[in-house]
Design brief:
heterodimer; A: Rossmann fold; OB fold (Dihydrolipoamide Acetyltransferase, E2P); 2 domains; six-stranded mixed sheet; about 25% helix; B: 15 helices; about 0% strand; disordered C terminus
Chain lengths: ~375, ~300
C-alpha cells in the first residue's frame, strides 16, 4: 500500500501534448477515479503511472519514490485492462498466479493467495477453466483476481467495465467497491462513465484536454462544480445552461432569462452575485431535478414559469420533460403524476437555491 | 470453400421463387461440383504415380491401359527400400529439413517478436524488407550464393560446396523471411494488453515471448513449421547446384540424377521414389493439421 503523487506530469507525442502538466496527490487506501471524455488524457495518465508510457516531463512518485525510470514490473502495481488481457492458454488459477510464479514464490503461498482471491471474488468453481470458457463478468473477476493475488501497492483499472452489458456493469461496479472495502489498496480507476466515477470514487478527478478540470468528492463535483465543463459532464441528464443577465429592479437583484421571464434572486445568491458587472455575459446552470412541476406552496427561492413541452420521457420513477426557452433546449424532471404531455403547456418551478451562475466566456462558475 | 461458394451464389440467385434452403441447396451443389473438379485435377498425378509404381518395367513399356495394373508388384518398393543409396538420400533430406526447420524457428521467432512488438527505429521498414527478401526467386539467388559460399570456403578452408550441410546455410534464405513474415502477422494479432499485463506481472521480454507469445501463437508457429519443412524437403534447385556427389544428394535430386541414366528413365522406381518422398510431409502435415485445428478451436465454445 502506498500513496501516489504526480508532479507537473507531461506526455507529448511528437507535437501533440496529450497530458499537460498534471498535479495529483493520491492518499494511501484512496479510491481515485479519473473521468473525462475520450482523448482527455486519462488513460495516458494511468499508463504513465503503470510505466507503460514514458513520461515526457515531471515526476511520478509511488510510496514517496520517484518511479519515472522504474520498469512496470518493479513498480509493484497491478493493472486491470478493459479487454481483461487474460492469458488465453492458461487456466484461471494459472492466470492469477503467473506473476507470483515469475517471482518464484513458494508453491504453498501461491496456492493460498489464489484460493483466497478466488473466494473473495466468488470464482472458486472456475479455477480450472480457461478464459474462453468464461463469461465477460467472470473474466473481469479473474482479471481482478490476478491483480489482488499480487498484493501490490497500487491497483490500476483502465475502463474495466466498458466491455460489459449495462446490467452486469452495475453488478461489477458494486463488486469492485466491495473488494476495495476489503483490501483497501490504493486504487486509480479510469472511466469515461460519470456514473461509475460518482459511485466508486472517494475522490473524482475530472480531466479535459490533457488537464485536470477539478478534483473533489463526488458530492463536491456535483454540487459545487468549478467550471462549465465539470458542471456539464457530471450528472445525467446534464445540467442546463441558459443565457441570462443580472438586472437591478427596485433595489433587488434579478436574473433575466428571456424577455418575459425574470426571477428575483434569493438573498444568499443576491449577496454573492451583487458585485458582478451587469454587462457580463452569463449562463444560468440549473440541473434538471431543480426544474420540477410547480406546487401550490412555493418555498423561498423557488420561482415558477409557464412553458409548452416539446417532448416528455416517462422513466417510471420520474418523467423527463424537454422544452425550449428562447431557443435554448432545456430538460426538467417532473413527478410522473404531474400530467406532463408532449406538446402540452405546463407550469414549472425553478429552484434558484441550487442554481449556478457561470461566466459564458471563461466557463468559470461564479 | 463451401462457405465462399454459398456467399457468392447466395445473393446472385433470384429470390423470386426460392427460399433460403433452396438457395443453399444450389450453392452446395455448385460447391460440390467445383470441389470434385479440383479433387480430380489434383489427385490424378499421384494416382498415376501410384499405379505406375506398382508395375514392372516391362508392363510400363507395354502398350496396355496405363490407368490399370494387370500384374501388380512391389518390386520397385523393395528395391528402393533395400538400396543404401536411396536410404542415404532419404536420410540427407530428413537431417537437412529437420535442422533447417530448427534453425528457421530459432531465427524467425525472436525476429518476428522484435519486429512486431519492440518498436524501435526502422522496425517497420525492416519488417517490409524481410518480406521483400522473400520475393527474390531462388533462381536469381543461387549464383551469388554459390559465389559467396565459394569465397567462405576459400577463406576458412572448410569444405562447404558439394557437402549436404551446405544446404543448412542456403535453405534458411528461403524459409526465414517467409516464416518471419507470417509470424509477425500472428504476433501482431495478439492484443497489446497481453504483453503489457505480462510486463506488469513481472515478465521479461524473453519470458513474455516464451510463456505468452509462443503458446498463444502456436497455430501460427505450426503453420510456419509446416512451411519451412515443406520448402526444405521439396527444394530442388539449390541441392542440384550445391551438391553433386551421390552420397551428398537429397531425395528430389537423388531420384532424378540416379534413376535417369542418359535417356533411360526408370519410371517405376522414379514414381516409387517420388511417392515415398512425399510420405513424410504428408504424415507430418496430417498430424500437425489436427493439432493446428485443435489449437484454433480450443475452448471456443462456452462451458
Amino acid at each position: 500500500m502506498a500513496d501516489v503523487a504526480l508532479r507537473k506530469v507531461v506526455k507529448r507525442y511528437d507535437d501533440v501534448e496529450a497530458v499537460r502538466g498534471i498535479d495529483l496527490d493520491i492518499a494511501d487506501h484512496e479510491f481515485i477515479v479519473l473521468v473525462g471524455p475520450s482523448g482527455c488524457g486519462k488513460s495516458t495518465t494511468l499508463r504513465m503511472i503503470a510505466g507503460l508510457e514514458d513520461i515526457s516531463d515531471g515526476d511520478i512518485m509511488i510510496g514517496g519514490d520517484v518511479v519515472n525510470d522504474v520498469p512496470p514490473k518493479d513498480r509493484d502495481i497491478a493493472m486491470v485492462f478493459q479487454n481483461y488481457a487474460l492469458y488465453p492458454h492458461m487456466t484461471v488459477a494459472e492466470n492469477m498466479s503467473f506473476g507470483l510464479r515469475l517471482k518464484h514464490y513458494p508453491k504453498a503461498e501461491i496456492k493460498a493467495r489464489v484460493t483466497e482471491a478466488a473466494r473473495l471474488l466468488d470464482i472458486t468453481d472456475l479455477i480450472d477453466r480457461k478464459p474462453k470458457q468464461l463469461s465477460g463478468g467472470q473474466r473481469q473477476r479473474v482479471a481482478m483476481g490476478r491483480a489482488i493475488v499480487r498484493n501490490p501497492k497500487v491497483f490500476l483499472f483502465d475502463e474495466p467495465l466498458s466491455n460489459l452489458d449495462a446490467k452486469l456493469r452495475v453488478q461489477m461496479r458494486i463488486e469492485i467497491k466491495k473488494v476495495h472495502q476489503k483490501v483497501r489498496t490504493t486504487t486509480v480507476y479510469v472511466t469515461h462513465d460519470q456514473v461509475e466515477a460518482m459511485t466508486l470514487a472517494d475522490r473524482v478527478v475530472v480531466m479535459n484536454k490533457g488537464k485536470i478540470e477539478q478534483i473533489g468528492t463526488p458530492n463536491e463535483l456535483y454540487h459545487k462544480p468549478a467550471t462549465r465543463f465539470v458542471a456539464g459532464f457530471i450528472g445525467s441528464p446534464a445540467m442546463n445552461f441558459l443565457p441570462c443577465r443580472l438586472e437591478d429592479v427596485g433595489g433587488t437583484l434579478q436574473l433575466r432569462l428571456t424577455d418575459r421571464i425574470a426571477f428575483a434572486l434569493p438573498a444568499a445568491r443576491a449577496a454573492r452575485y451583487n458585485a458582478l458587472p451587469r454587462t457580463d455575459k452569463l449562463l444560468l446552470g440549473i440541473r434538471p431535478e431543480h426544474l420540477t412541476e410547480a406546487h401550490a406552496h412555493l418555498g423561498p427561492g423557488i420561482e415558477t414559469f409557464d412553458t409548452v413541452l416539446d417532448v416528455t420521457e416517462p422513466m417510471g420513477m420520474e418523467t423527463l420533460v424537454y422544452f425550449g426557452l428562447d431557443g435554448t433546449p432545456v430538460c426538467g424532471r417532473v413527478d410522473p403524476n404531474a400530467g406532463a404531455k408532449d406538446g402540452a403547456p405546463m407550469r414549472l418551478a425553478m429552484d434558484l437555491n441550487n442554481m449556478h451562475l457561470l461566466n459564458e466566456e471563461t466557463g468559470a462558475v461564479l | 470453400m463451401s462457405t465462399l461458394a454459398i456467399d457468392k451464389a447466395g445473393p446472385s440467385r433470384k429470390v423470386k421463387y426460392g427460399s433460403m434452403s433452396r438457395d443453399r441447396t444450389w450453392a452446395l451443389r455448385w460447391s460440390y461440383f467445383f470441389l470434385v473438379l479440383f479433387a480430380i485435377f489434383f489427385l490424378t498425378p499421384p494416382v498415376y504415380m501410384l499405379i505406375t509404381s506398382l508395375k514392372s518395367s516391362a508392363e510400363i513399356s507395354a502398350a496396355t491401359n496405363p490407368w490399370w495394373v494387370f500384374h501388380p508388384t512391389l518390386s520397385n518398393y523393395v528395391e528402393l527400400l533395400t538400396s543404401n543409396q536411396f536410404l542415404r538420400f532419404f536420410w540427407n533430406s530428413a537431417i537437412v529439413s529437420i535442422v533447417v526447420v530448427i534453425v528457421t524457428m530459432l531465427i524467425s521467432i525472436p525476429a518476428a517478436f522484435a519486429l512486431a512488438r519492440m518498436k524501435f527505429w526502422g522496425s517497420a521498414t525492416l519488417a517490409t524488407g524481410v518480406f521483400l527478401t522473400y520475393l527474390i526467386p531462388d533462381s536469381l539467388l543461387f549464383i551469388p550464393l554459390f559465389k559467396m559460399l565459394g569465397v567462405v570456403q576459400d577463406v576458412t578452408g572448410i569444405t562447404l560446396l558439394n557437402r549436404w550441410y551446405v544446404l543448412l546455410f542456403v535453405y534458411p534464405t528461403l524459409t526465414v523471411p517467409f516464416c518471419t513474415w507470417i509470424m509477425i502477422g500472428y504476433f501482431a494479432s495478439i492484443p497489446k494488453e497481453l504483453d503489457e499485463a505480462a510486463l506488469i506481472d513481472g515478465a521479461s521480454w524473453l519470458q513474455t515471448l516464451t510463456r505468452i507469445f509462443i503458446p498463444v501463437a502456436l497455430p501460427g508457429l505450426i503453420a510456419a513449421t509446416i512451411f519451412a519443412f515443406t520448402v526444405s524437403w521439396a527444394q530442388f534447385l539449390y541441392p542440384l547446384v550445391f551438391t553433386t556427389s551421390v552420397d551428398q544428394l537429397v531425395l528430389p535430386v537423388g531420384i532424378t540424377t540416379t534413376l535417369i541414366k542418359g535417356d533411360v528413365f526408370n519410371w517405376g522406381q522414379i514414381m516409387t521414389g517420388a511417392l515415398l518422398g512425399a510420405a513424410p510431409p504428408l504424415i507430418i502435415y496430417a498430424f500437425l493439421m489436427d493439432y493446428y485445428i485443435a489449437g484454433l478451436t480450443a475452448g471456443a465454445t462456452k462451458g
